[in-house]
Amino acid sequence: MHVNWxxxxxxxxxxxxxxxxxxxxxxxxxxxxxMLAHGGHALQHVHNASQAALSASALDDHVNNYxxxxxxxxxxxxxxxxxxxxxxGRPALVVPALATAxxxxxxxxxxSGYIFRAWVVTSPKPAADIPGLAEDVRxxxxxxxxxxxxxQGEVTAKLYVPRRQVQWVMKVDNLGDPVNAGxxxxxxxxxxxEFVAPDAVSNVIGAL
Amino acid sequence: MRLxxxxxxxxxxxxxxxxxxxxxxxxxTSIGRVLAERGLAGDxxxxxxxxxxxxxxxxxxxxxxxxxxxxxxxxxxIAGSLLATIKGPAPKxxxxxxxxxxxxxxxxxxxxxxxxxxxxxxxxxEHERHFLAGLTEHPLVERQRLVDLxxxxxxxxxxxxxxxxxxxxxxxxxxxxxxxxxxxxxxxSFNEFVRVWEQQGEMTQLLLVGxxxxxxxxxxxxxxxxxxxxxxxxxxxxxxWPLLAMLVGMHRVTARSPEEDVVAGPATxxxxxxxxxxxxxxxxxFDAAE
Lengths: 208, 290
Description:
Helix content of chain A: 10-25%
Oligomer: heterodimer
Low-confidence stretches of chain A: none
Strand content of chain A: 15-25%
Largest sheet of chain B: 3 strands, antiparallel
Number of helices of chain B: 14
Radius of gyration of chain B: 19 Å
Shape of chain B: globular
Distance between the termini of chain B: 35 Å
Number of strands of chain B: 3
Mean pLDDT of chain A: 91
Radius of gyration of chain A: 17 Å
Helix content of chain B: 40-55%
Order of helices and strands of chain B: HHHHHHEEEHHHHHHHH
């Protein structure tokens, strides 16, 4: 397994404001739209259905046909950056994750938004139907069919990203500059006091 | 003058995207500073991801968006300032980033690229010489690739490139020079185009036809993603910078009528017109004669 640091950019809107961003960090974690759509259901009633929603075809829809499944997709797009092949004889193009996340958060300069930093565990093989693991869909060795949006450098989480894996959230204005928010404590960045660093699950074992 | 297919993009969205991209270096630097002050900058991976130098390519895309949507002066301002990063603090630019910035600067007329002795390639920017690449440091195959990446920038700078072939101590033997591929391969045609011009005095646009066709089909491929194209979300830049540099260089050397242009479709028609406009708007002071 790999641990991937990722960014998630979310634009500010009537349904996602400072309070909601704080709620993500301090309570809910980053929820998929499938989770939000089933928010009124008891956990024991939806955990079976949520796992049934995960499949290779559902992941394909999420990446290649997002508009059709946006309201109910069980997957969450995160960004980890990528290197784009530019063709024979041309240098490869580095697409940094932060720049991509800022683009999503600001809708490319049209609104203010939020940048989350989180880590997820990815599998070295495709495992679209296994909850708890994210999919490294930017890896074209694993997901050649996802080349169309490769430049977005996507790592796809499933159902939700636990809040203990969300390190911080930052508010940015429409140009991507940090800007103060109205969450607890104020400031432009909200640090998650309950964040657990990925070292906790690394394979580096200390001596007894 | 706009790249065909961009006419329906709202001006407000284009202006917002350009302002956003123009500010990206400042924004990412500010974010890094805020996180460092809070002790959240964390591991080395984050440091790598936040390097401002990676933003060079995003700025290049913004310059392409501006030029493709008729904002020529704005696009040239972005393109002409990319190499300013070369003067900044560490981390320094990679060789490919330096060549990329120099190519856009040469198009905008703010950078002059020169082949000098011992296979070194330098960029003159704001009255200072900056190292771009050392060809002799690379194996032959890599040199050939590098030369074809650098030639457009040097050609747009109106430098006679015969030094590349003639000057002693440039890192190339005659055998190596004669082994460079000839002809229609789109990835070596720049080099060949310049060589034919300098040796025969003719600009044979047909030598660029491979690359012109490639650009035409590339733009068609971008537009085939109808949803993404309508949202101004493109997988790559809207301009083939080396090709544009060659066309700009061509129009800087001699005025040519549009009827003489080799055109593969509406996108290459636009690129020719854009090159002609840039050449007339950026009459830089570099002397073509050595």
